[in-house]
Specification:
The chain is of the alpha+beta class and 120 residues long. It has two domains: 3-69, lambda repressor-like DNA-binding domains (434 Repressor (Amino-terminal Domain), Orthogonal Bundle); 92-120. The protein is 61% helix and 13% strand. It has seven helices and three strands; from the N terminus they run H-H-H-H-H-H-E-E-E-H. A three-stranded antiparallel beta sheet has the order 1-2-3. It is elongated. The termini are far apart.
């Protein structure tokens, strides 16, 4: 498998479309599409930029194998997909997870307040 196909798979796992990723990279969607179709040469610098935008590393883009590199992490509110590299999870930022948990607690609290107001 060529790198363009690997990049496409990781992009799709990150739920991004070509236009969004191209914009993040400061390039046109047409030029970015050529990368995914392996129609243009790609520099190591550009591969690194793509890896950073996709929150992964170059090695994952070069050696992506869906059987090895996808971990499904279940939580009580849904499913998070993240890539792994030789058993090391590229973990979601712990602060982000803490913020999400706090927001969830705030939503539960607000729902309780609304229910109390409705009862009055």
């Amino acid at each position: 498998m060529k790198i363009g196909q690997n990049i496409r798979k990781v992009r799709e796992l990150n739920d991004l479309n070509q236009e969004t990723l191209a914009s993040m990279l400061g390039m046109s969607a047409v030029a970015y599409g050529r990368i995914e179709r392996n129609e243009s040469d790609i520099s190591l610098k550009r591969i690194n930029q793509i890896a950073k935008a996709l929150n992964t590393d170059i090695e994952t883009l070069l050696n992506f194998d869906s059987k090895k590199h996808i971990v499904q992490m279940e939580n009580n509110k849904g499913t998070i997909y993240t890539s792994i590299n030789y058993g090391t999870v590229n973990a979601v930022n712990e602060n982000l997870l803490e913020t999400i948990a706090n927001l969830n607690n705030n939503i539960v609290h607000l729902n309780n307040v609304v229910l109390q107001l409705i009862k009055k």
